[in-house]
Amino acid sequence: MARLCMIAKTNKTPKFRIRARNRCKICGRPRAYMRKFEICRICFRKLALEGYLPGVTKASW
After folding, report:
1. With bands split at pLDDT 50, 70 and 90, how would you rate the model's confidence at 1?
2. How far apart are CA 44 and CA 41, in angstroms?
3. 49 burial via Cβ count (<10 Å: 0-12, 13-18, 19+)
4. What are the structural domains of the chain?
5. Measured between alpha carbons, how far apart are the two ends of the chain, in Å?
6. Which residues contact 49 (CB under 8 A, 6 or more apart)?
7. pLDDT by residue (tens digit) across 5-60?
8. How far is CA 4 from the centre of its chain?
9. What DSSP line would sit under 1-61, residue for residue?
């Protein structure tokens, strides 16, 4: 779980645009972020297995 102070810091507009950091909308994780869904890989997997993400299926080959 991301620290609350880091999430609050991310919500503020940075002095320079390059300093902006993408974070998961659910848990606030900064790494393994998926732009298309705006969530991290862990939350993505959990929501996909529960069926909350339409069009996402588990791969099998």
Report:
1. low
2. 5
3. exposed
4. 4-50 (4.10.830.10)
5. 33
6. 58
7. 888 887 788 889 888 888 899 988 889 999 999 999 999 999 999 999 999 988 88
8. 15
9. ---HHHHHHHHSPPSSGGG-----TTT---SSEETTTTEEHHHHHHHHHHT-STT------
